[in-house]
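Late entry, written up from scratch paper. The run itself happened at the end of the previous shift, but nothing got recorded in the book at the time, so transcribing now.
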Amino acid sequence: MFDAARCDFCGDCLAQCSYMEFSPEEAGKEFQKLVQGDEVDWLHDCITCFACNEYCSKEARPFDLILKRLEEGGNFADGALLQQMAERFEAKSEPRPVEIKGKVMSLCVMTGNMPWAPQGQLFEDLTILKGLPYFCHVLFAHMGNESIMHQRMQKAVENLAQSGAEEIIFVHEDCYALLQDIAPRAGIDVPFKVVHFFEYLRDYLQEHRDRITPLQMKVAYQRPCASRHTPAEVENTLQEIFSLIGVERVKRKYDGIDALCCGVEAAGPNLKLFPRGKNIEPFKDRNIADARDNQAETMVYLCPMCFKSLHEKAHAAGLHNYMISDLCRLALGEELPEEKPL
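Output as recorded:
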């Protein structure tokens, strides 16, 4: 929720935005208009990457207000499409009872997006939670709607808690962001420990260090938008993983706090998330060129939708494409499934 008491209209939120062009002075005035409820002509230039929340040193959460105004406007995404997506991702049943064996991991709906990814030794001996009852609904923020996410948050937490797990590993960054940050801020109690996938990967690699063959690879990491909600130590854990598997993360412009959104357009077959006409292709091209020009051989992803959005362009530019778990599996001596896209 936007905290007006913390906002001093410094303008950093808009001035640092990669998709708008404002001086700090202009940005401060424009954001003040938004707070006052005035109409602003830049609102639909937002691509909902959450970055302005991270840019704000006062922790006022400016994106939360932008999202509220987008929903109030009601025309950010096509209404019929929004309803279609809301119905598609609504759980129609209760989660199935599970018997906990080993660690508990939530895959959300990741297996539907990329069934080839959550396979192999990293995912063995785990209790897996997957399917719509565990879906986090953060995607609706990308459609300019916060209500659907908030209305379904409590039930998602309850479904996860119903597993009986004391701690749950979250593979998808959106899920982790919801449980670690968004839900608690909304006053929802999360009755289990929320564990980031990176923590699990690092610990697994450390336990099986004797089986690792360093990959000797230079990579560019595609940071998910939801990482704007995650603590700084998560990035430190990723670096530990890269060190363990012998991977160098190249220094480039569009990384860390300056990361560009992947520009995802499809949530599934023939479903367009962004019908509003903003041309995101130049930003995708800039992102890929930045990786290639800084000697990266590979684009590495945590988010399946980032992979889906960028892997063809990256491949055309001569880059390999791997999920972070793919790299760990390779370092541990596994062969990846043939159906994995290049």
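The chain has a mean pLDDT of 93.
(Scratch paper discarded after transcription.)
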